[in-house]
Design a protein that fits this description.
The complex is a heterotrimer of chains A (about 450), B (about 140) and C (about 700). Chain A has about 450 residues and is α/β, with parallel strands linked by helices. Chain A has helices at about 15-30, 60-70, 115-120, 160-165, 215-225, 265-280, 300-310, 405-425, and strands at about 1-15, 35, 50, 55-60, 75-80, 80-90, 95-100, 125, 135, 140, 150, 180-190, 195, 215, 245, 285-290, 315-325, 330-335, 345-350, 350-355, 355-360, 395, 450-455. In chain A, the strands form six sheets. In chain A, strands 1, 2, 5, 6, 7, 12 and 22 form a seven-stranded mixed β-sheet that branches. In chain A, strands 14-20-15-16-17-18-19 form a seven-stranded mixed β-sheet. In chain A, helix 1 (about 15-30) crosses helix 2, helix 1 packs parallel to helix 8 and helix 6 runs parallel beside helix 7. Chain C has about 700 residues and is α/β, with parallel strands linked by helices. Among the domains of chain C are: about 1-25 and about 610-680, Alpha-Beta Plaits (2-Layer Sandwich), CATH 3.30.70.20; about 35-165, Rossmann fold (3-Layer(aba) Sandwich); about 355-530, FAD/NAD(P)-binding domain. Chain C contains 16 helices and 34 strands. In chain C, helix 1 packs parallel to helix 5 (about 140-160), helix 5 (about 140-160) packs antiparallel against helix 16 (about 680-690) and helix 11 (about 435-450) packs parallel to helix 12. The longest helix of chain C has 21 residues, at about 140-160. Chain C is elongated and about 100 Å long. The chains are: A alpha/beta (about 450), B alpha/beta (about 140), C alpha/beta (about 700). Chains in contact: A-B, A-C, B-C. At the A-C interface, helix 1, helix 2, helix 7, helix 8 and strand 23 of A face helix 3, helix 6, strand 7, helix 7 and strand 10 of C.
Chain lengths: ~450, ~140, ~700
């Protein structure tokens, strides 16, 4: 292990859409930002999505420009594949210990040509594709990854040396070691994001056991134009599904799972996916079993109504359990809440569990901020300053604070940047408020005018 | 490479690509080493809405045998531009007809930034058109009086 | 979407205004010394494309001063070659044939700058992603294609003009419109970051709608102390001036440099007023009290609640008869003859935080206005407020209701065929986001306060989505709130029943009990009215701010840029953009502040120069381009003195408002328009270069 030291105005932990946005806002304001990401590419969960609701923009089309802006910003240093080990106040600022994990590829030399990937003989399930496609042991994380730099999955590597021979820039370095870095940061933004609740959280749904019970994030990849199969096939036998079921709240609003809260995004992503499915599988029946449809954001209700008018079947029901048939189909025991309240069975050939959101990391592992009982970062001022944390100089944004969708994450990320900028004070060479201070000359305001002026609630009288 | 190989001999295709959508999509096609015929020339633009009808005619006159407008479709970052673009195409078709040029040589399509397969299909379709019709010079009539 | 086109700002000025300067206006000079660099990319290109041949062919092109092929153009060595050649050979354009410009365009532009060249005289040719990688099995053809792409790049590069970023001088001040939580939050954040703020509020009092609540969900904190804490913090900032009773009456200028005329209506009351209570008591006028959502009345001189900000009554000039009784009673501190004052201020950016209105039910909608026992949730909020008009007691005719029914989604999630469009001719198709939790909060409070009162909740979907909101739903079931679910197409009916034990009968087809039709006798019906856009049409006309189909101000992008209006320098905070709760409003306000501080981070605002431009020697002022453009103020006709004494209209592009899409370009019958760096003649030169290359003979 070698050691490095670096100074920065703001250390942003997590380079998903929230971390990227906070970093960009701070950098645009003139602060130096160190953006660290534990995985090998920036972009977080958003870059893996198919399209986004309710605009139906292709997710990667709108994420990559943001990723690229951050990666090329003069004020942002981006370190991927970097773990945050600890962040502690050191009087005036924070001392952070980071570990830049070994990629076994020299990032400066790698040109992202993928010759190592083509040469590598080892095939592994592709995490980015929900383990549905394959990747090599030497690989670039995914097509739109930033940086376009290879890494070697050393646990899977067979040390054949083929990548080393294939590399045109001699970037492969099996001797590379993790580098410990001490960062002196004046402030911190926690944007550690979310993970989905486990597919097998509710055993009665057979997630993780039955091949054709998949998570909604897997479906995102199946629906992506650059996804693992390039179209929607069910995993067990590659059959094109005729009947797809969505089970809502499969991991949320469930006290027994320790996730009593609403995950906020599942209704909308399910609606979006059903609309995309009805486009790619026009003959398929699509059913959504739900408790309450929570289409609360701007334009979301209209989006939901569009889905209903497209013939998506929304059924208010509780799914009690799911059983796998020998042919891979799935038999759902459903308690229909509306109509006659009957308990019935329905067979679908693909079931998507609308899994919920839980914290992506435990920030307490590296920093002493207060969390709520579910592990999300808590604000001491939840109504007026949601992105503050219990530690001065530390803000949080996005799903690290609680489940939320992209737009709400982005709003919070910008809000967190404001909190950090306020804490740091203006960067050097910032313009000053013009000398006269007040935008209005109070002397122009005549007697009796309602006026509360700087620092005093005063009614001026001339 | 997909489908039956098409003889691309003697033709050239222009692909008008948008900076935000299809240009990165075409890059992604190359990144994935998905092959398509080399007689394809990609020119980037912020938005194909900027091209007047005469530009397309200039291309045909100079010997471009097929034009694929790989727009952003309704994902266009610019207000109303796709509708304006779509409305222009029939006017170009009219000019093409007047010069005896098959309107199949010009196609407006939408390609997203990861739509690699869609791009390959559009290219392959246009290649087929160009192979069937041959060089544009062969069917172009003189400027109508 | 609202009509966005109108006369651009400055269009009526006689001389062309130059709100932005393009620093070096130069006559186009054709490139005569082009440097061409072909990258091997360590074999990624050179294994397929014969880079030596590409460079050789390029070197023979007219205007090319040097053509090299280099192992890695992005390396220090590659960049140094460019810088060295600029110095040694006096290059005036640079073409790099390498990977996609998405990767290294910025790298090479910087190299040009280091060599002392204008960075916009660089042009990439993409021969990796779009040649060697796409045609690995056709090396000859890929090489021919690469040559054609380089020829095209050289042809265009020779025609490139040096460009400078569009710069607008920025005033380090902002205007925040709206004194509710969003406006207050934005003002505080801006002031604390050293940006001057003028905070204006249309009404005589700060605090907006939040001060009408008595507690906020989910913290259950008292609302007014919370909001007043924020007000006090704003007042403590040196950089903020606050004007109540103030509206924007005129607005000109651009991002970085807006000039705004404000009109301040006199309060009519000054600090000298010592006998507020007497003055108010003396006033003979009685009007509906908007602070209590009309459940009681106020005078024409009024104060919404003790300790309001400012803690001083104000006169409502719309209803004041100027009888003078208040002045007689108070003795001093009232001026009934004060005139409005107009003030002009400058601001670099504007935060719009004008808030929302509650949906007003139509008479007869669920019995509203047909019975005084049909009320709205905001009215119930006022009744539940211990400091409110009923002292916190929910009473009807002096009695606590025995049975109440809440009805959700009143004025929200409306559908055609069932709901009638509002005054603006629009249905409220959207979800108002806050009503579910607010309703359950009130329902729980009623159950707690009046355990003998039966509470029914008629809903469609319960949307307690937010942090710590689900417990309201869970608790309400535990507390005995009875839920009934109705279908959107089959709404509950509220009927007045004369002489019955209960004065109101609610009939609902409850889908939770097998679609049975249930009659619920109640004393009180509470309508959970939605959030609707406030009428700010005058401001919209002044700014051309785009409005969405739902009537709320439209953001640039609903996912990625939610707090920015398409009008540069105009930011959206809180419910002016969409329904949201206090937490979400203050976050949006802080986010808007982040955008303002980034805009005003230096003494000027800088933007990319790829915007439309007019060739004045060709333009004949026909104005067709104005119709083609979708961006307000981006293009205008201005009077230009063509020659001595001859003034004619000519198109003028405002580089600040122009987005560079080029929609105007084909509209011009005389080809006077182009987008800088994306000019039609440059494209034609590329086509000529590509087609000049011999056809690829299916070479493999």
């Amino acid at each position: 292990m070698t050691d490095q030291r670096i100074d920065t105005d703001a250390l942003v932990v997590g380079a998903g859409i929230a971390g990227l946005q906070s970093a960009l806002d701070l950098a645009d304001r003139g602060y130096k930002v160190l953006l660290v990401e534990k995985t090998a590419s920036i972009g977080g969960k958003m870059i893996a999505l198919s399209k986004v609701f309710p605009t139906m923009d292709c997710a990667s089309c709108i994420t990559t420009p943001r990723m690229s802006s951050a990666a090329h910003h003069d004020n942002i240093t981006t370190w991927t594949y970097t773990d945050v080990d600890s962040i502690a106040p050191d009087g005036t600022a924070f001392t952070a210990h980071l570990t830049r994990k070994a990629r076994y590829v020299d990032e400066d030399l790698c040109i992202g040509c993928r010759l190592c990937e083509y040469a590598c003989p080892v095939e592994l399930p592709h995490e980015f594709e929900g383990n549905m496609g394959a990747r090599r042991a030497a690989y670039i994380p995914f097509g739109t990854a930033i940086p376009q730099k290879a890494l070697i999955d050393i646990d899977a590597c067979v040390y054949c040396g083929k990548c080393e021979k294939a590399c045109p820039t001699d970037a492969i370095d099996f001797g590379q070691e993790p580098v410990s870095v001490t960062v002196h940061a004046r402030s911190v933004v926690i944007a550690t994001g979310f993970e989905t609740t486990p597919l097998d959280a509710k055993k009665e749904y057979r997630g993780g056991v039955a091949a054709n019970v998949i998570s909604a994030l897997d479906m995102e990849r199946l629906l992506s134009p650059n996804g693992p199969y390039g179209r929607v096939l069910r995993p067990s036998d590659g059959k094109i599904p005729d009947s797809v079921a969505y089970v809502q709240c499969a991991g949320s609003r469930d006290e027994t799972l320790g996730v009593p809260y609403c995950s906020r995004v599942c209704c909308m992503y399910a609606i979006k996916q059903t609309m995309l499915l009805s486009g790619s599988l026009p003959l398929a029946d699509i059913t959504v079993y739900y408790m309450d449809i929570r289409a609360f954001g701007k334009g979301y209700e209209q989006f939901y109504q569009t889905a209903r008018s497209m013939g998506i079947n929304f059924v208010k029901a509780k799914v009690a359990r799911i059983e796998e048939e020998p042919n891979g189909d799935l038999r759902l025991r459903v308690e229909i809440i509306e109509e006659d309240g009957r308990v019935t069975e329905a067979v679908h050939d693909l079931v998507v569990l609308s899994v919920g959101l839980k914290p992506g990391d435990d920030p307490r592992r590296f920093i002493g901020v207060d969390l709520d009982q579910y592990g999300f970062v808590a604000s001491p001022e939840p109504k007026l300053d949601a992105t503050l944390t219990s530690m001065p100089g530390v803000a949080a944004a996005g799903t690290a604070i609680g489940p939320k969708d992209i737009v709400d994450s982005i709003v919070e990320a910008s809000a967190a940047a404001t909190k950090i900028a306020t804490y740091l004070g203006p960067p050097p060479n910032s313009p000053q408020v013009p000398e006269d201070g007040l935008a209005v000359d109070v002397r122009e305001i005549k007697a009796g005018d309602a006026l509360a002026v700087a620092g005093r609630s005063e009614v001026q009288r001339g | 490479m997909t489908g039956t190989p098409i003889d691309t001999q003697g033709t050239r295709m222009l692909v008008i690509a948008t900076l935000l959508c299809s240009y990165p999509g075409i890059d992604a096609t190359g990144q994935a080493h998905m092959e398509y015929p080399p007689n394809t020339y990609v020119i980037p633009t912020p938005d194909p809405v900027m091209f007047p009808e005469s530009f397309y005619m200039h291309c045909f006159e100079k010997g471009v045998d097929g034009i694929l407008i790989a727009s952003c479709g309704t994902d266009s970052p610019y207000e109303g531009s796709y509708d304006q673009l779509a409305a222009r195409i029939p006017k170009v078709y009219a000019l093409m007809k007047a010069r005896g040029i098959s309107i199949r040589r010009l196609k407006l399509t939408a390609i997203c930034s990861v739509c690699t397969k869609a791009f390959l299909k559009e290219v392959s379709d246009m290649e087929a058109v160009m192979a069937e019709l041959g060089p544009v010079s062969g069917e172009m009539t003189a400027v109508p009086a | 979407m609202a009509e966005r086109r109108s006369k651009p700002k400055g269009a009526d000025k006689a001389t062309p205004a130059t709100p932005a300067t393009r620093a070096t206006p130069q006559q186009p000079v054709r490139g005569e010394k082009v440097g061409v660099y072909v990258c091997h990319c360590g074999g990624n290109i050179s294994d397929v494309v014969d880079v030596d041949r590409v460079a050789t062919e390029a070197s023979q092109l007219e205007g090319v001063a040097v053509a090299r092929h280099i192992m890695f153009m992005c390396s220090d060595e590659g960049q140094k070659a460019i810088v060295d050649d600029i110095e040694a050979l006096g290059l005036d354009r640079v073409v790099v044939a390498a990977c996609t410009p998405k990767l290294h365009e910025a790298t090479f532009r910087r190299a040009l700058q280091r060599g002392g060249m204008n960075p916009y005289l660089f042009l990439p040719a993409n021969i990796r992603e779009q040649a060697s990688w796409a045609h690995p099995h056709s090396p000859k053809a890929a090489t021919e294609k690469a040559i054609a792409l380089v020829r095209a790049a050289v042809a265009k590069a020779e025609m490139l003009e040096p460009l400078d970023k569009v710069r607008v001088a920025a005033v380090h001040r902002s205007l925040v419109i709206g004194g509710g939580v969003a406006g207050l939050r934005a003002a505080l954040d801006l002031a604390r970051q050293g940006v001057g703020v003028t905070l204006i509020e249309k009404s005589p009092f700060l605090g907006g709608r939040s001060v009408q609540l008595h507690t906020v969900f989910p913290t259950e904190d008292p609302a007014r102390p919370l909001v007043h804490r924020l007000i006090d913090e704003v007042k403590a900032e040196r950089n903020v001036s606050i004007l109540t009773n103030t509206e924007v009456v005129a607005l000109t200028g651009y991002v970085g440099d807006f000039t705004i005329t404000l009109r301040t209506t006199p309060r009519g009351v000054s600090r000298d007023l010592r006998k507020s209570a007497e003055a108010i008591a003396a006033c003979p006028v009685k009007v509906a009290n908007e602070f209590n959502d009309g459940i009681d009345e106020r005078k024409a001189i009024y104060q919404p609640y003790p300790g309001s900000e400012p803690d001083l009554p104000a006169i409502d000039w719309a209803t004041c008869t100027r009888c003078g009784d208040c002045l007689t009673a108070a003795g001093a501190g009232i001026d009934l003859n004060a005139e409005p004052v107009e003030t002009r201020i400058e601001a670099g950016a504007i935060v719009v935080a004008t808030g929302f209105d509650h949906y007003q039910p139509r008479p007869g909608e669920y019995g509203y206005a047909a019975s005084p026992r049909v009320v709205t949730l905001p009215q119930v909020h006022r009744m539940l407020d211990p400091e409110g008009p009923t002292g916190g007691r929910l009473e009807i005719d002096g009695r606590v209701p025995r049975s109440v029914a809440f009805i959700h989604c009143v004025g929200s999630r409306q559908i055609e065929g069932v709901d009638e469009p509002g005054p603006a001719g629009k249905l409220h198709e959207y979800c108002s986001r806050v009503c579910c939790t607010a309703t359950l909060q009130a329902a729980n409070e009623l159950r707690k306060k009046y355990p003998d009162t039966a509470v029914y909740d008629l809903y469609r979907d319960i949307r307690t989505y937010g942090r710590d909101q689900e417990p309201y739903y869970v608790d309400s079931s535990k507390k005995g709130v009875v839920f009934m679910r109705f279908a959107n197409e089959d709404r509950p009916k509220v009927e007045v029943v004369e002489g019955a034990n209960y004065p109101l009968k609610v009939t609902v087809t409850d889908t939770l009990t097998f679609g049975a039709e249930i009659e619920v006798p109640v004393d009180l019906v509470i309508l959970s009215v939605g959030v609707q856009p406030r009428d700010i049409s005058e401001f919209i006309d002044m700014t051309h701010a785009p409005v969405g189909a739902d009537g709320f101000l439209l953001e640039v992008h609903p996912k990625l840029r939610p707090v920015e209006s398409a009008i540069p320098g105009l930011l959206l905070a809180g419910t002016v953009q969409a329904p949201m709760d206090i937490t979400e409003s203050t976050s949006a306000a802080s986010a808007a502040a982040a955008k303002v501080t980034a805009l005003l981070a230096s003494d000027h605002v800088e933007m990319e120069p790829f915007v439309a431009k007019v060739d004045p020697s060709r333009c004949d002022g026909c104005g067709l381009c104005l119709d083609a453009c979708h961006y307000a103020g981006a293009i205008a006709l201005q009077d230009v003195e063509i020659e001595e004494g001859v003034v004619e209209k000519r198109a003028y592009v405002n580089p600040v408002a122009c987005k560079g899409c080029g929609a105007c370009v084909p509209s011009c019958p005389v080809s006077a328009l182009d987008v800088a760096s994306w000019e039609i003649d440059q494209y034609k030169a590329m086509i000529d270069a590509i087609t000049a290359q011999p056809l690829i003979a299916g070479a493999r």
